[in-house]
Amino acid sequence: TIDGTELWIQTTLSPIVDIDGNIKNLIAIDSDITEIKKAEEEISKQRNLLELKNNLITDSIKYAKKIQEALLPSTGTIKKHFKDSFVLFHPKDLVSGDFYWVAQKDSMTFLAEVDCTGHGVPGGFMSMIGNSLLSEIVNIKNVYEPEEILCLMHQRLIESFNRNEDDNSQEDGMDASIFCFNKSENSLKIACANQDAYFISDGKMQTIKGGHFSIGETTFKQNFRVSQTQINVNQGDVLYLMSDGYQDQFGGPNNKKFMIKKLRELLYLIHKQEMKEQLTTLDEAFSEWKGDYKQIDDILLIGIKF
Question: In the chain, which residues have pLDDT < 50?
Answer without folding.
Answer: none
